[in-house]
Amino acid sequence: VQTAYAEGTVSGASFDDQVWGYPTEINVWQLLYNKQVLEGAGVANAPETWDEFREAAAAVTEQGTPGLALIEGWDSGVVHPWTSLLWSNGGEYVAEDASEALFNSQEGIDTLQLQLDMIDDGSAIISTLEDADFLNGQAAMTFMPNFYGADLRAGMQGGIENVGVAPIPHAEGNEAIALQYEWLWGVSQASQQQEEAWRFLQWLNSPRTGDAAATSTPGGEVASPVADEASSSPMGDFLTSGLNAIPGRTSDQQAHDEVVSDPFVGPFVEALQTARTEPIISGAQEIKTALQKQVEAAWFDQKSAEEALNSAADEANRILGERA
């Protein structure tokens, strides 16, 4: 796994310095924009910096279309784009040893304030997945992962060809860093067929071939196919044909170049080179939920950016302390 998958993908399947299984489908967050709307407002290129981002949002808002749709009511829809912006501002989510939350740093406050300023000046609206404001042409930009391509292909005004995909806007002096997340295949310690299950997962996630060789499994050495890195794994075939998704294995991405180099999917694949995985820490879901609620409180003018993030950090530190 450590040699066949990108570093960020390996991190997403790891906890406590141990890889826990085979990564499968990958999702990474990027900025989506309506090409026709931006061009109509005189915005020639996708925004790269925070300043350009605000200018583009303001320009299209002046033409009658809200510049940005922020997604509420969905934990990942709130926290993942915000964390991507935080990292692209030089901030950190938690300490490297997971001893404390760091998202309430000045970088974090500035990141949330960016969103609040855009809400205040009317260039950002608070939306939901159900509202589908970007899909329906009611917002010029939004942040979404690559899985949203299925909805865009089915219903985007102007077709998916009208959707541009751009890196996360970054603060001056920093680089775009997107958050990625994934799923993995593993074998339960309680399984009564560990060896057979592991052999199946090796077959499912390895490039197809015919020769056999000895391979280490939890139950000892077993005969396993020798990988042909030019071929796709069965998992790669399923993800690209059944789900039109990005497979985690690098050789699967290469074997299915016609899918991953698609004008919509390609920029997401490129973003994986610098993307970082969602923090894999004890209590991660509870911390995400706490942060979501506080960010939304700030969006709805119930708290300042600093108050909201300090409240979320207090709850996160309590959770981290209980699991230390």
The largest β sheet comes out as: 8 strands, mixed
Q: Which H/E pattern describes the elements? A: HEEEHHEHHEEHEEHEEHEHHHEHH
Unreliable stretches (pLDDT < 50, length at least 5) are 211-217
The amount of beta strand, in percent, is: 15-25%
CATH top level label of the domain at 27-181 and 277-322: Alpha Beta
What's the CATH superfamily of the domain at 27-181 and 277-322, by name?
Periplasmic binding protein-like II
Distance between the termini: 28 Å
CATH fold node name of the domain at 27-181 and 277-322: D-Maltodextrin-Binding Protein, domain 2
Number of strands: 12
Per DSSP, the total helix count is 13
- Helical percentage: 40-55%
Mean pLDDT value: 93
Report the principal-axis shape.
globular
Q: Care to describe what's here?
A:
With 324 residues, this protein is an alpha/beta fold. It has a domain at 27-181 and 277-322: Periplasmic binding protein-like II (D-Maltodextrin-Binding Protein, domain 2). 41% of the residues lie in helices and 18% in strands. It has 13 helices and twelve strands. It has helices at 7-12, 35-40, 50-62, 75-87, 106-120, 149-155, 194-205, 234-242, 250-255, 257-260, 265-271, 284-299, 305-322; strands at residues 14-15, 18-19, 22-34, 68-71, 124-127, 141-145, 163-166, 179-185, 212-217, 220-225, 246-247, 276-277. The strands form three sheets. Strands 3, 4, 5, 6, 7, 8, 11 and 12 form an eight-stranded mixed β-sheet that branches. A two-stranded antiparallel sheet has the order 1-2. Helix 4 (75-87) crosses helix 12 (284-299) and helix 12 (284-299) packs antiparallel against helix 13. The protein is globular and about 60 Å long. The model is unreliable at 211-217 (pLDDT under 50).
